[in-house]
Amino acid sequence: MRIATMFTTAAFVALFSVSAMAQTATTPSTTTTTTPSATTSTPSATTTMKPKAMKPAQTAVSKACSTQADAKGLHGKARAKFRSDCKKNGGKV
């Protein structure tokens, strides 16, 4: 019984290691077959996916609203609602 378990385990390990090797072998071939036009369009796509930076005025308003929420001891949904209303009013309650 112990030998059968050992052979079964070895068979699974061999099966998974072969499939893992096959996946890593196919990955480089797909990257080397890309066309130059596809590689030139990639940088523009990645720059558009970055989150936009907040303007300094928006950051100041957000920080002011957070400070006010901290002073009131708000947490959870109440804090989120307070901050939302505060930011709509430009940092004033």
Computed CA radius of gyration, to the nearest angstrom: 28 Å
Mean pLDDT: 74
Number of helices: 4
Low-confidence stretches: none
Q: N-to-C SSE series?
A: HHHH
Cα shape: rod-shaped
**Count of distinct strands:** 0
Percentage beta strand: under 5%
Describe the largest sheet. none
**Percent helix range:** over 70%
Organism: Rhizobium tropici
Biased composition (Low complexity): 25-48
Signal peptide: 1-22
Biased composition (Basic and acidic residues): 82-93
Question: How would the blueprint of this fold be written?
Answer:
Layout: H1 2-32, H2 36-49, H3 56-72, H4 76-88
Helix pairs in contact: 3-4
Explain this structure to me?
The structure is a single chain. The protein is mainly alpha-helical and 93 residues long. It contains four helices and no strands. The protein has helices spanning 2-32, 36-49, 56-72, 76-88. It is rod-shaped. 3% of the residues are buried. The model has no long low-confidence stretch (mean pLDDT 74).
